[in-house]
Structure formats: structure tokens, C-alpha cells
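Colleagues,

For the teaching module next term, I've prepared a clean inverse folding example: a structure given as C-alpha cells, and then the sequence designed for it. I'd like students to try predicting residues themselves before seeing the answer, so please don't circulate the second half yet.
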């Protein structure tokens, strides 16, 4: 960890606990900051709050007092999940107090180069692919961010000869100031989290922070098939590495029906790749480009491409039963992700979909419903999704209450050669604490069959 003096004696408010707030509070305190933590949850049963108090760090629980900034704070480090319309955050910005997320701290203290991966979809798969490539290639990678340990905790312990592979969300990137990864990856851009960011432009600008502090010594790997990202790529000072699925290109990394190309030259045959779907091919290109840039052995890259099949809850093959294939795509919390899932199959699909009702339209899924033979609708949006399925000409539509019923109905209606796919196109919070919990429920029910 870099020895920094800028935090010594500085008054810092850590807003929100959970893993990131707890880690940030401990780190800042160890660097000599005067830290106060404020968490909305009650103090009773709050283990992180109790541990911090034992270490002499003041913790205020039970809400975010509007006057808390009157204590003379010079910096706010907030939990990424706390929105910018929170009164304390709004007041801090009005008072010109910097508001960071803990990935900014990670960037400042890390002695290891950071490879940061963001995108509306695909960032976890890309992060995991790259981590495995580097691990097999002997590059001593560490995994951090949304997918692993809190970023500043990993950065605190990272050695200069290691690499931190860090998945970063728009929530985290919105709270950065000098964040500068050695390699930045932007997988794609589609409207998401507008209830948090307010506008599409604000969301995109948060994503763009992954590259905006990079210099000519750094690399920016980005989706060249999306003009929305191209416009931000024009603003970076980093060396640009575009990726494209539209055939062989002279620069960057690209793919046609048969081959992956690096800088216009054949690199590896697509026939070895185990991941299915065009969206996953984008992830493969992004991860492969980053691995090449850090001189990862080609054999390690090929080993991973030839063996890696899925990330849990992301187009995860669960099992085959009586020639029915079950896939868990619980991470598909929006229509874009479900479009990618549906386009990955040519077999008849029994689709389990639905969840939290945010009022989003399902209409953009219509062209991808051709192979769907039956829909099992679940959650708050069950009725709306059922109506949408009927509008697509699907007659076999069932509304159910539980995941157990959904899996049972799908299996009962299926035939040999069918695919039973959980790809909800909705968030999980109507019935589950997370998409992971929803996916686990699906897997549990499949295993009971």
C-alpha cells in the first residue's frame, strides 16, 4: 500500500456501512483520518458498527441526520448504493465537500496496477474470464469490487508485481475523482439504473469515468460496435483498443464467424470457445485483449476459452434432465440481458420471467420470442409479462406465485430437446433479496426434480 499523508488529521464522514463502508472506515482511520460513520440501519444487531466502536471509531446509527455535515467534514465517502438525491449527499455537494466511493481510495493506495471492468451487462463474466486467464498465466491476479472483496481492502494488501482485476459499477464510478486504471474495459452501454442516476446521460458519464483519468501510458478497451461508447472513446487520452463482432478489423480485437483476430492477425479459433451467445463473445474479446496487453501466455488464454462455460446466475448451465436443459440467468434483471439470453438458443424455450415491477416495457423482447414455446410468469410483473407473451402470439402462458411452481410447470410442459430458461427481465426485489438468491432458488427447485 502506498503511504499517503493526505488523510492524516482530515475529518471524514463515511456514509453507509455494509462491506464497503466498514472497509473504508478502517482504512481511513489507519491512515490517521478522524472518521465518523453514519449508517441508516439501527445499531442493534449491526455487527460492523459494533466492531468499529470497539476500535474507537464513532458510529451514528438509525438514520442520516441532515445536520451531520455541521461537524466540519472535509470528505464524504459514501456507500455506492446511497443515491445522490440523499439529503446528506446533496448538501455535501452544495458545500463543495468531495463525495467519493471506496474505489477512489483503492485507486490512490494501490501499488498494483488496476484493470477496471464496467458495462451495463457482461462485466462479471468479463472480470471472471480475465481473472482465470491471468491466474493460469502466472500473473498473480487479485479480484476485487462487485464480484469479490471490497476494492480498497484488496488494494491495501496488493503487491506491485500483482494485478487487481476490479469489477466497477456506475454507482461506484460516479464517486471517483482521480480513479485511473492501467487498463479500462467498457463492455456495453444501455439504459439502466435511471432511478438512481436520473438521466441516460448521467448514467453514461458515470461509466465514462472508468477512462477519463487515463493517460497515454494506459489502455482503454471498448465496444466499437456501439456509437454511444465511441463518442466517449474519442475523449480519452489512453491507447484505444476497440473490439468488434462485425468481422476482421485492422486494429484492436475482432471476430468473424470462425476466428478471433488481434491487430488484424488470426489469434484463436472460435471453435474452442465454450461460452454461448454473441453477448458472451463480446466478453471474450474484451477479456482476451486485456490478457494480451499484460503479456499473458496464449496457452493460458486458450485454456480458459476452451473450458469456461458460465458465471453463476449468468447463463449458467444447471443440468440436463431427460434431455431437457436448464439454464439459470437470474442476473438478467433487464430486457437487454434477456434478449441476449433468448438469442443464444435455437431450441424451443420455456421461459420463466417476471419480477419487480418498475413499469418498464417488455416490447423490445418481441423479436426474440420466436423460439419461446411457453412462458411461465412470476412476481409482481407476472400479469404484465403474461399479457406481453400473448401479444407475441404465445398461447401457452401460465402465471404462478413461487419459483417451485414455475419450475414444476415448465418441466411438466417441456419435451425432449427443450430448454428451460430462467431469464426474468426484471429485478428480484419483489420476492428475493438479490438476483443471487433468486437464482439459487431456481437451482434448488431444478435439483428437486
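(Answer key — instructors only)
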Amino acid at each position: 500500500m502506498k503511504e499517503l499523508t493526505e488523510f492524516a488529521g482530515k475529518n471524514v464522514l463515511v456514509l453507509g456501512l455494509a462491506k464497503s463502508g466498514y472497509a473504508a472506515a478502517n482504512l481511513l482511520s489507519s491512515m490517521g483520518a478522524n472518521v465518523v460513520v453514519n449508517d441508516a440501519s439501527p445499531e442493534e444487531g449491526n455487527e460492523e458498527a459494533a466492531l468499529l466502536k470497539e476500535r474507537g471509531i464513532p458510529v451514528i446509527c438509525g438514520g442520516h441526520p441532515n445536520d451531520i455535515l455541521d461537524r466540519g467534514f472535509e470528505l464524504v465517502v459514501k456507500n455506492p448504493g446511497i443515491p445522490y438525491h440523499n439529503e446528506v449527499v446533496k448538501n455535501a455537494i452544495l458545500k463543495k465537500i468531495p463525495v467519493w466511493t471506496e474505489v477512489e481510495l483503492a485507486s490512490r493506495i494501490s501499488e498494483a496496477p488496476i484493470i477496471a471492468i464496467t458495462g451495463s451487462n457482461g462485466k462479471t463474466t468479463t472480470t471472471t474470464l480475465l481473472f482465470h486467464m491471468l491466474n493460469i498465466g502466472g500473473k498473480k491476479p487479485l479480484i476485487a469490487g462487485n464480484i469479490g472483496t471490497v476494492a480498497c481492502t484488496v488494494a491495501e494488501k496488493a503487491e506491485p508485481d500483482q494485478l487487481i482485476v476490479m469489477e466497477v459499477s456506475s454507482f461506484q464510478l460516479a464517486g471517483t475523482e482521480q480513479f485511473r486504471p492501467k487498463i479500462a474495459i467498457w463492455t456495453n452501454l444501455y439504459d439502466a439504473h435511471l432511478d438512481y442516476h436520473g438521466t441516460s446521460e448521467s448514467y453514461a458519464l458515470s461509466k465514462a469515468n472508468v477512462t477519463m483519468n487515463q493517460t497515454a501510458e494506459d489502455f482503454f478497451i471498448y465496444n466499437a460496435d456501439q456509437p454511444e461508447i465511441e463518442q466517449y472513446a474519442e475523449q480519452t487520452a489512453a491507447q484505444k483498443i476497440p473490439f468488434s463482432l462485425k468481422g476482421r478489423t485492422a486494429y484492436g480485437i475482432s471476430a468473424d464467424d470462425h476466428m478471433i483476430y488481434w491487430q488484424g492477425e488470426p489469434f484463436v479459433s472460435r471453435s474452442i470457445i465454450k461460452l454461448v451467445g454473441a453477448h458472451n463473445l463480446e466478453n471474450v474479446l474484451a477479456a482476451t485483449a486485456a490478457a494480451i496487453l499484460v503479456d499473458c501466455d496464449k496457452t493460458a488464454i486458450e485454456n480458459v476459452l476452451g473450458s469456461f462455460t458460465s458465471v453463476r446466475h449468468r447463463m449458467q448451465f444447471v443440468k440436463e434432465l431427460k434431455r431437457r436443459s436448464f439454464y439459470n440467468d437470474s442476473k438478467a434483471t433487464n430486457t437487454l440481458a434477456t434478449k441476449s439470453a433468448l438469442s443464444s438458443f435455437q431450441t424451443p424455450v420455456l421461459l420463466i420471467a417476471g419480477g419487480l415491477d418498475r413499469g418498464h416495457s417488455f416490447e423490445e423482447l418481441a423479436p426474440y420470442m420466436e423460439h419461446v414455446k411457453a412462458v411461465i410468469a412470476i412476481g409482481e410483473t407476472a400479469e404484465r409479462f403474461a399479457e406481453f407473451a400473448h401479444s407475441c402470439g404465445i398461447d401457452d402462458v401460465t402465471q404462478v406465485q413461487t419459483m417451485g411452481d414455475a419450475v414444476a410447470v415448465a418441466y411438466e410442459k417441456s419435451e425432449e430437446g427443450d430448454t428451460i430458461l430462467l431469464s426474468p427481465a426484471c429485478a428480484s426485489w419483489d420476492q428475493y433479496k438479490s438476483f443471487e438468491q433468486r437464482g439459487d432458488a431456481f437451482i434448488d427447485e431444478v435439483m428437486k426434480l
